[in-house]
User: What shape does this take?
Amino acid sequence: MTGSNRTGKKKGRTWRKRKRRICEGDRRPVCQGKDRELIHLQQFMRANGFNGCPLKPTIFPSTGRGAMAARSIKAGEVIIAVPKNLLISCRTVLLSHLGNKLKTWSSRFTCAQVLSLFLLCERNKGQASFWYPYISTLPNSFTTPVYFTEAEVDALSPTLQEKARELKKELLHAFNDLEPFVASMLPELDSKFTFDAFRWAWSVLKTRTLYQEDCRSPYLSNKEPQTSTMVPMLDLINHSPTAKARFGYNVNTSCYEVRVLEPYKKYDQVFISYGFDDNTELMLKFGFFVPRNPKDFIKINLSELLECLPQMDDEERTKKVDLLFDSGLLSNQTCTWNGISWQVISVLQVLARNGIDKDSFQIARFLMPFRNAAPTSEEARALQAAGALLERRLKAYETTIEEDSVLLQGTLSPCMELAVGSRREEKRMLLNALEVLTQYQTIN
Assistant: This one.
């Protein structure tokens, strides 16, 4: 009979735990140690001077593919050291067949263009490419804004929409710029040089770019630094805004190294910081965001602050703005998960004052908001203006947090899910700041 215990033995604790995990949905990491492509990558790298690392490629429930500590790792330990011959940089391209073609061409392309083109050329070679073991492990698609449809771009927060469209234009320009060169100099690639293919290569590069010393080649455009480098294996490590690690090229060892500055236990996921901490940059460059990101912020413009306190004539407004620029208070006008920045409140206090000169301004600029005292009339006006600013920001979205949550429960494309999720995260931060402000006003 199906499901019967034919041996007559009672099933044990291990079986019951396994059964419970299946019923509840197993949320444990899944090691990819037997993944054929990743095995080939490691074999390829070891054959070319890589000494291995204490990491195992693993699928994590919350972050997807990442790197798991195969043993305990000490703070200060170098966990990855990839030799120079396994780095893909502008120097790699210039020493290749493609590099020879580029040197004879009249126009000069950017580092991003030639590295993207190099990836396409090597992928076109298939298993004949030296880089095949690495290229075969790369994703086939991405969730960066260049993959968004127009509807998906429209679903982004207003602060991201314009930047996403700029990235799409940049990609299209880079592709169109290369077309004459490919048609003339790379006939073996010409029929396969499509926008979709180039978008894939461009996205591989943009999501995996690390930095090395500037190549400074006369055969490449000087419109941007020639520093982009791809490092096999290192791109398996996921981002965390709180990760403590250093990475870079070590001229003494001729390796690209990652040194962790905090310990990890065996089976922990190992993280690095990609160097871009706020969610806007993470979305634009890598196609993801970090929920409740402690490094995230929303920028607030001076024009928004002026709109909150319009009861000023032009002369007074000009005078106050000039003083604010001279003071440096306009340098951190932001909203974070800790609330609206004290600089915002300080600027609003200045704008709320009835007339101001340089002497009185020196006192006003150091009035720290949220002190343990009842607010003055000017501080009260500043706090009310800050609340109005946050409410205006929240109303500017076409949907509410609740409506976004309903949308995310449905079936969405990966890019649409990311767009809706990221804008909901922005709204949650603004709402949290408004609640912090309201709580302070209630107490005082």
Notes: The radius of gyration is 27 Å. Confidence is low (pLDDT under 50) at residues 1-11, 13-19, 21-25, 363-371. Residues 414-443 form the longest helix (30 residues). The CA atoms of residues 155 and 420 lie 6 Å apart.
